[in-house]
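I am writing to request your help with a piece of structural work I have in hand. Here, with my thanks, is the record as I have it:
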Amino acid sequence: MKKWCSFISILTLIIFFSANLTPISHALTHTQKPLDFFNEIENNQNSEISYYAIIIGVEDYQYISEQNRLSIDETAQDVYDHLITGKNYSKENTRLLLNEQATKNNIKNTILSWLNPLETEEDIILFYFIGKTEKIHAKTLFGANTLSYCYDSTNSTDSTDKITDKELDSWLDQLDSQHIALFFDTSFSKNMHALPQIGRIILGSTGNIFPKTNPSDSSLSHTLFSHFVINGLKGYADEDSDGIISIQELLRYTKTNCIQHSLQTFIDKIKQLDFRFCPQLPSISNRHFGTF
């Protein structure tokens, strides 16, 4: 009886939030056009500002056999391809690390040895990670909360071959930039509590209500989160039709459409008495963030 009461309460909550949902197709019918991936500071047209990006996608592992492949490397490639179509993010200032390129040392060196000597306090940095992340249940790693898997990670509980959120935070702390956007298309992204601080804005694919979610949707060409990030980069995130996509616009577009699509799919599954799909509600952290 308690289980049914709990289920009814959750269903009531979801129906409440989705009562005014519009079909997702309506959100994608306006004219598609190529746009640059900008943020608010670009309105100043400051030619001294540089734009850097690190995009990481890990689908194949050296020591792990993963099932239910989600075309992770193709998704990361698509994010990269759409990002560099604009004039701000050049190939020279963007690094794409796929599978065997995404070892722990290579990711670390890309941040500290490649990016750190180049960027300045006013430069714009985008860090995008799509792959496998697990939550740390035992607080034995001195404040770390999550483990993100690299190409050379193993299934052992040892954290030295994986990247903890605290470790990533320590690498990012060495950068001068006060304008860093972090995107995580991964499980338990909402548990990366070590990362939020002034000068960073974070969007993760899983939120607080349903942290364990189905990361894919068969009706989409990519994972739910990356599908809308890529659509946003294509031009759909341009809220005011000014030909400029701010990072804030991309964040709002991705979060809103992920929630709408996921909850609508969940309700459709409930109507079919199919309980295998769990909503994927993104989480955004910008409460510590200043002007971007």
Q: What stands out?
A: Helices lie at 2-18, 72-83, 104-115, 165-172, 224-236, 247-271. Confidence is low (pLDDT under 50) at residues 8-44, 208-215, 287-292. The first helix runs from residue 2 to 18. The chain is about 30% helix and 15% strand.
